[in-house]
Amino acid sequence: MRRRPEGSHVLVAASAVGLILLVGLPLLFLLLQAVFPGFNEGSFDQPFQAFRETLPDPALAELTGNTLLLGLAVVLGTLVVAGPVGLLRAVYRIPAATTWDVIFLVPFMIPPYIAAMAWMMTLQPGGYLEQLTGVHAGGFLFSVGGVVFVMILNLFPLTYFAVSRTVAAVGGRQGAVARVCGASPWRAFVRVTLPLCLPGIAAAQLLVFVLSIEEFGTPATLASRSGFHVLVTGIHERFADWPIDIPGAAVLSTVLVVLAIAAYGLQHWLVTRRDRVTVTGKPVQPQQAEPGRWRPAVLAAFGMLAFAGVVLPLTGMVVTALTRTVSGGLTPGNLALDHFRAALEPGSGALTALLNSLGLATGTALVTAVAGMVIAWCVVRAPVRGRTLLDALAVLPNAIPGIVVAVGLVLVWNQPWWPITVYNTPLILLVAYCCLLIPYPVRYAAAGLRQTSVSLEQAARVAGAGPMRILVRVVLPLVLPSVLVAMLLVFAVATRELVASLILTPPGMHTVATYIFRQFEQGSVGEGMALSTIAVAVTTGLLLLVARRLRGGMLV
Amino acid sequence: MPSSNRAATVMTLTLVSVLGVSTAHGQELTVYSSGPGELANNLVSGFEEETGVDVNLFQSTTGDVMSRLEAERVNPQADVIISASWDSAADLEAEGRLLDYTSSNAESVPDFLVNDTYTAQGVAALSLAYNTQSDVPRPSEWEDLRDPVYTDQVSMPDPAQSGSAYDFVAGLVSDRGEDAWALLDVLADQGLIVPGANRAALNPVLQGGRSVVFGAVDYIALGQAARGESVEVIHPDSGTVIAPRPIMIQADTDQPDQAKSFVDFVLSETGQRMVADVFLMPARADIPADRATIDELTVIETKDDVAADREALLGRFKEVTEGR
Amino acid sequence: MTVVTRTECDVHGNGTLALHDLHVAFDGMPALRGVDLDLQSGEFLALLGPSGCGKTTLLRIIAGLMAPNRGRVAIGGMHAADGSVGYSLPPERRDIGMVYQDYALWPHLTVAGNVAFPLEVRGVGRSERRRRVAEVLDLVGLTALAERSPGTLSGGQQQRVALARALVARPGIVLFDEPLSNLDRELRETLADEIADTVRRMGVTAVYVTHDQTEAFGVADRVGVLVDGRLRQVAPPETIFRDPADRAVAEFIRAGELVDGKVDKHSGRLRADTGGVLLPLTVGRAGQRGRMLLPRNALSPAAEGDGHIAANVVRCRYRGDVYAVRARLGGVMGPEVEFHTTTAPDRDTTVPLVVDAGQCRFFPEKEWAGEGETVDEPEDAPVPLRRPVSEQF
Fold first, then answer.
1. Are B87 and B141 part of one and the same domain?
2. ipTM
3. What is the spatial distance between Cα A181 and Cα B173, in angstroms, rounded to a whole number?
């Protein structure tokens, strides 16, 4: 009788190999490129030359400073804007609460570069606002403040959902305990609710920070004219403006990754500097109060946020799609469905691009879900050393900007020595999306696993099931609800990913994002906006459809 | 585990069918084009129809095309490259990355647009793009914009982000020396905005917040006018800069013959008509165009020494236009 | 070890609790329907009732975590809530402590930090705080664990910490919400005693919610039985057991078997609906229908003779000290009852039983209908066969 290899080791090995291919290699190659300027030509000459040239550059300090400023401002801004509203959602019984939740999900579906463009068309001199009211906000919009403003309105849902869910799950109950102990509402909030909710909120704000410092479209569209440049725009400039400086871009990327990892470390330290706190997410009856005479004020807060964060950018987008010409402005004669017709025309390529994106997003959701579950199981349950490393590798992409992943993937997969490569096939996009998005399913599945008892798996083991069968028959059904939520998130982000797609899309192919971007660059803004309207509607519709089938319908 | 194997197979098949994975590149020609997209698509389908050779087209901005070429250096993928920047072709030639080829169809292309390894297939000119609905008077010369009436009315593409805008600044400086910088200085004093590349510079003029683009790439504005936007392209009589758009073949192409026939097609009468259709000037002088052509324009010659020192030129431009 | 004297507590106000006519409904479903209660300072009340009876709701209203729709709450003579005017004093101003089923200790604070919290928010100075925390931790025997994180303690230790936190500020009233139901049986008994001792020593008034009647009878001065949102009876444990105020209390307490029947016109006894056997009654008008409680202790084996009822043995179980015998009164068709004996009868044999009518209770049917404006039990009339309560074990 042959001895079969220990099943869990096979899973761990598979996870390790997968993660190294997906995440480790691109990062390694990028680092090699940063160290060896001629790496893309296959040369290892002049090591650290690019560092010597780029690091002392005063521009680098400015870019880094601006990036930090932007990230911190958006982190603070989302807290200020969405924190109180999330708190209200947790504390009070809000009329039509689930509807508000769905509304606040919409900014996830609007790609940031579209939102930036919509804001620009609305607020710039001559924009829709000025056409309607005679005033414009161009001075504000095209400044650091404008960039921060637009990015806050893009990212606030992360904060809103983190605050409302954490406070509802943890704080409401524990805050009540503190009140019974004699603490005033404010005291109970500061001493008990806040510290207990800190880990959840800090994790969300870390994500806000990383997404802010890696965002390209918004600062490029809005702030470059006021001379405000950040690391990502610097990377793009070195990477996409002739003469191209890949080593310099690689060095800047390294700086960006270091920043993101430092933020991750800071958050980790902040959360765990006391004793390791684990708050079990035991479902408790939410104890929500009636808003009473504050009801109008509470609803006004919700309404204002929804108006600024959802209604305005959506309107800017739809109106641009509906106006025949930009210079025609908001006149009845200029409103037409021409752009939608053009986008839906069989030969336009827009529909193909939409289908490509939906297919890729579905593929990404499936692959990351399966991989995420296996990796999560290894991280949480596998009896092996080095699983912390696995965990780190799986979470790392959260700290890596899309453009860095894209460059890394080109460097890895365009090597002539691969017998077969995904480069220049649509699969490279799948690889890129999987790399960028794998952290979400891993996190969600791990959280789900930690809440289920290990004895359920042991029982299956005793009953004679191997690790594979346990994974499929026991673990999968247990963590499926959490993984489904992660899949929705992955799907939503993958359908609109721009930065990596621009660089990696193989010849002859378009995704929604690259198509729209090309329309902005070379065709008509209206047609681009028409396709984005369709894409936002389709993805939102699909997600709502799936979400309704999920119990609770709670997406985040 | 049969069930999971089956699931894996099904999933792979689904993915393959959804994404239409193709790994065979043997008989296909790969073209990297910096647009415009409509032209690139027309050229490719026309070529495919005529020759039966399949073409993989990567169509993006010049920046993305070039960055892709750089990242792929260890294992080049493109056979034919169409760039919007003459300088990028010169640089690639200097690095020995281009194949020597001059198409027989290039005979009627003016000499200064033909090199050993690259040939212009179309030409854009820099212009004033004026919103005809605006309240300010129509300018006809670069210097007209010195008039205070154009305060807060002028937009300009960023030479750091747009190759043609770079050529424009280099041309003006070649032609007028310090006067060019003085003009920029006045414009900057009067609230000139430099929002980004060509598109970004044109957008505020279309919406009416600004009235004139200083140094607009003409074919984009002409295309917009054809779509019904109220924008007019003005080529000053005192002279303007042209931006020829080169086509070239990467030196280590696997299919030099097919690549050459693609270049021939682009420079053929059919190809050149397609170029004219998107409001670019056809490189061939014998193809008519529905717009001002090279011989109707006063062309400013850019001095090589001015254009070559990129850092100095961009540095000074930044100094003049930023920080006010 | 410090003994806190009554007078010291009195400084902080007295611990009386008065509830008057409390009503609460959730989405139109009534949870409490007119609860009245008066507690003396220092009294230990156990609140007993089946799950869903409104125990926790009542506790939350006393704590101020919820406002009544109707009725008043007074704590320590202080007006705390009035449903008719929508007034409710916030929890932090009621001077109470609370112990929860899941301990509800804050993971971000140490044991000492948790215990010190009520003092901290009451503005007690640092040194005084330290002294009192040490005192109360000593009282619950956790001095050695003061600097530990609560998550690292056992369930019993965590509940002691929660007790210390509830008592440290010497509140007038401490509320217990099923504090022991997460612990195993052995620990439950010892900890129940500990809680009762500690609370009595500090002279604090306690309202102790539980669904475990042994626990309630063990710790309390008085027991309140809450069924269907009504406080049916508030009395010392012995009274509750011996003399349940109504049918619902009798059913919940499970003091014995309940037999439905009708008072026989001729004998004045109760004729059981099942089997037609006649059972002795001390009260009851002729022709009246009702339900009779037959406590286990009211049945005993008799010598052959007058007044005995023959019972068919169904099952016999050895209990360690006695045999618990289940038998059918008056033949195989009769109502099933349970009694204790020291000798084991064989199955299917007949034993003579004596019924001590003085211990039996009769609940006439009319009274059940009069219990409330809504008749919520379908078996009111006609009375169907009822499964003996003891069979539910």
1. no
2. 0.81
3. 77
User: What are the structure tokens assigned to C329, written together?
Assistant: 């009164």
The CATH homologous superfamily to which domain A8-279+287-549 belongs is MetI-like (1.10.3720.10)
B189 in the same domain as B317: yes
Torsion sign, CA atoms C256, C261, C262, C263: negative
- Cβ-based neighbours of A1, under 8 Å, separated by 6 or more: none
Contact C92 A184 (CB under 8 A): yes
Q: Which residue of A has its CA nearest to B17?
A: A359
* pLDDT tens sequence across C268-286: 888 888 888 888 887 777 8
Nearest 5°: the CA angle A125, A126, A128 is 110
Q: Is the bond leading into A112 cis (omega within 30 degrees of zero)?
A: no
Kindly report the CATH number assigned to the domain that includes residue B197. Answer: 3.40.190.10
Query: Which residues in chain C are closer than 8 Å to A177, comparing Cβ atoms?
Result: 98, 100, 104, 106
- Rounded Cα distance, B273 and B266, in Å: 9
How many residues are recorded in chain A? 556
Q: Are residues B218 and B88 in the same domain?
A: no
DSSP track, C166-177: HHTT--SEEEEE
- In angstroms, the CA A325 to CA A302 distance is 34
B231 — phi, psi (to 5°)? -130, 140
Helix axes A402-413, A427-437, angle to 10 degrees: 130
H helices of B30-177, in order, are 37-51, 62-71, 86-94, 163-176
Strands (E) across chain B are located at: 29-33, 55-59, 80-82, 118-131, 154-155, 212-217, 231-234, 242-249, 281-282
Which C positions 247-276 lie with beta carbon below 8 A of chain A? none
First to last CA, chain C: 43
Residues of A in contact with C158 (CB under 8 A): none
| Residues in A lying within 8 Å of C, measured between beta carbons | 173-174, 176-185, 187-188, 191-192, 195-196, 274-275, 277-279, 282, 287
Q: For residue B20, what pLDDT band results from cuts at 50, 70 and 90? A: very low
**Which residue of chain B comes nearest to A123, CA vs CA?**
B209
**Total structural domains in chain B?**
2
Query: Which of B207, B222, B262, B310 is the best substitution to test chain A (most A C-beta atoms within 10 A)?
Result: B207
Task: Tell me how many degrees the CA angle A278-A284-A289 measures, rounded to the nearest 5.
Answer: 120
Chain A segment 11-50 residues within 8 A of B by beta carbon are: 40-42
Please indicate, yes or no, whether residues B108 and B231 belong to a single structural domain of this protein.
Answer: no
Give me the domain span that covers residue B27: 3-122+244-290
Same domain, B165 and B87: no
The Cβ-side half-sphere exposure at B171, using a 13 Å CA radius, reads: 22
Domains of chain A by residue range: 8-279+287-549
One domain for residues B278 and B174: no
Please, what is the angle between helix A525-549 and helix A476-494, to 10°? 170
- Angle between helices A439-450 and A476-494 in degrees, nearest 10: 160
- For the stretch C164-175, pLDDT in tens is 999 999 999 999
* Residue A72 amino acid letter: L
CA angle C357, C322, C391 (to 5 degrees): 65
Residue B79 shares a structural domain with residue B160: no
Beta strand B118-131 pairing with B242-249:
antiparallel
Res C7: pLDDT: 37
> Which amino acid, A527?
E
Can you give the pLDDT at residue C211? 87
Say yes or no: B201 and B163 in one domain. Answer: yes
**Cβ–Cβ below 8 Å for A430 and B322:** no
